[in-house]
Amino acid sequence: DELKKEIPEGLLDIMNIPGMGPRKTKIVYENLKITSIKELETAARNGKLRNISGFGEKTEENILSGIQLQQKLRGRMLLFEALNLADTIMKEIKKNKEVKQVSPAGSLRRLKETVRDIDILCTVKKNKEKYIIDRFTNLPIVDKVLLAGTTKASVISKEGVQIDLRVLEELCYGAALQYFTGSKEHNIALRELANRKGFTINEYGVFKISKSGPPPSPSGKSVAGRTEEEIYALLGLRFIPPMLRENRGEIESSMDGRLPQLINLTEVRGDTHVHSKYSDGVNTIEEIADKAEKLGYEWVIICDHSQSLKIADGVSLKDMYRKIDYINRLNQKNPGIKILAGTEVDILSDGKLDYPDELLKELDFVNAAVHTGFKQEEEQITTRIIRAMENKYVHCISHLTGRLIGKREPYKINIEKVLQSARDTGTVLEINAFPERLDLSDVYCKRAKEMGIKMCIGSDAHSIGQMEYLPLGVYVAQRGWLEKNDVINTMNYKELKTEV
Prior knowledge:
Elements: H1 2-6, H2 11-15, H3 21-32, H4 37-45, H5 57-73, E1 77-78, H6 79-94, E2 99-104, H7 106-109, E3 114-115, E4 118-124, H8 129-137, E5 142-148, E6 152-157, E7 162-168, H9 173-181, H10 184-196, E8 199-202, E9 205-209, E10 218-224, H11 228-234, H12 250-255, E11 270-274, H13 285-294, E12 299-305, H14 317-333, E13 338-346, H15 357-360, E14 365-369, H16 378-389, E15 396-397, H17 415-425, E16 428-432, H18 442-450, E17 455-458, H19 470-479, H20 493-499
Parallel strand pairs: 4-7, 11-12, 12-13, 13-14, 14-15, 15-16, 16-17
Antiparallel strand pairs: 1-3, 2-4, 5-6, 6-7, 8-9, 9-10
Helix pairs in contact: 4-5, 9-11, 16-17, 18-19
């Protein structure tokens, strides 16, 4: 705290801009006395930073890109953070015996990768609405109360997140849940369908349209609204899971009976990407295997970094052979969970791999990934990734686009060319479940599925606690319309060995 007092206000914000860090922040402060992001942006736009030794026009461009990237995430939190916060709040709400139903809504219920605020809906016993509102606004997590009515409250949490609670009548709970879940685009399309069928929808229910003339107005009692299922059924639709409600063809697919049977977390048999003490992980292989068993897995793949990635304690050729032998001996001793020897091998700047084929062919699973040369031109980095896919020993490409949500933009790659190469070479593509990655995104997962490309989900865990990130990857898969057979994590050990 004392150190923070000595640092000019605003410098910590500058340090958090992607591409800045402590060193560059210190330099711009010492040279130009810049103490705010706004001042930094103005200096970069006016070409003042390039006059500092070691800085240049490219530095200014990168700083402006970093500011823009940070602003995209401003006011939003990662899905992982939002889920944890919502879970804490809902557990507190559920402690009250007066509460009957409770559910998140909004982008959190749709499992979007970032969330701005948290919406929670509930139903309660008769005349207990105000009681629940009072309990909610007095939770320890609340920093500030914005609104506290009889059926709605808005608060700001100590993390600075707005949380809205609505207490609803059971008769319209499904209608409100559907309405407040969104997305806006999905709801517009659903309302248009309802209008064509003679109904109108709002958060209070589904009503027949009055024939008294335009504009259409609701008449009579609600004909559906207690549950979401009855609303969709009334419109001739199969229930559409919240994570698909983005107006990307889900309504048409529901009409035609073509909605996917989405992959479920209970179908996952293993994790394809875990780091051990052999590289930059903190746990032993035995500890990882024990955690995997506790998670209910049949197998786990140890994918440590390769030799050239010194910053991540990449495993030397000699140590990798030792690791393979060690895993083989562990499997002989432990008849339970199966441990697979893998690697997260670096794709070097020319597309070659960081280990020779002689080693790669000895591994159970080869995960290839880009960790350097992020700023290469599109053609170069695309060719580089495709070249790695063409190696017959590569099973998978990890975190394909390289993005870090709110911190680093994706590489400039020709995604369509890369997907075509994955299809042609039979290369699996990873959904990296690390909270800041979630890469591939749901949009690209859907495209990969359309092309018949197999996917896998890896926690990219560097500790056994982080192995619990894997459900985030399942959520991305669900938003990407993936089914059990699209994802190799649903295979048992024998099936996996046959596949790879």
